[in-house]
Task: structure prediction
Amino acid sequence: MCIPDTITLENYGAGCMKILLLLAVLVLRSPMAAQSDPFIATIERAKLAIIPVACSSSDREVTPQTIKIWGTGFFVNFEGDFVTAAHVITDHFKWNAKGEPDPNCLPIIYLPDPRWPAAKWFKFERCVTDTLVDIAVCRTQQNPVEVPRLHLLRLHLVTTSPPDGTSVALTGFPLDVAIPVTSRGSIASSIGAFTGSQPEIMVNGAVWGGMSGGPLYLAHGSVIGMILKTGLPIAAGMGFARPTSSILDFLRKNKVAILEEQQQSKEKK
Result:
């Protein structure tokens, strides 16, 4: 209903016309704004690079029975190496002296596919972990790049520290959800060690259980950190991530190939 200050046929019609024009502009701008949002396409690409770190109760190669998704990971090269949070591995997976996993919790990941029921499953081997920085690197037994028709992408790691307030997204597999879920927020602070002695990025946004090990990335897709934990009740709505610089240091220390450095080496040759 249009209610002008003084009701006359003239100002009633003019007032209604202004409101209708405003509504029309808002309706027209909404889809345009969505189409111009750079995060929309980036999130869709990111979904093809992010994996669930899960337990299987079956050794079947095709569609094993998943019993629990414990965390999230993402590939750092095209050789089957992926990173996740160390606590995802140390809290939930065990291997014996021969490198054989607990048969009640076979370690698996799966690669996303536009048709999620057709996702491809891969077993992964014993991981290298560092509980101080809360980073782990694991390798799939079969290199997923060698499997035809897989929709596998790789996210770009950068060591920049965007200013506070920068928009970010995080994608993972929270609460046993079998498809990737994305939350958006902003950087609250990128300088500090808020929950321990190691540098962290504080994120203002929803971080749900199961997203540990997932990437924290910018609108153009570059990864600036890895999710470690959600805030406790007193810090609800906050999340914490390990900066990419710490991830790269960990990978170099453990002689894990990093795609960016492989590419730079080829360019020099």
Q: What stands out?
A: The CA atoms of residues 123 and 242 lie 26 Å apart. Helices lie at 9-36, 38-46, 86-90, 244-253, 259-268.
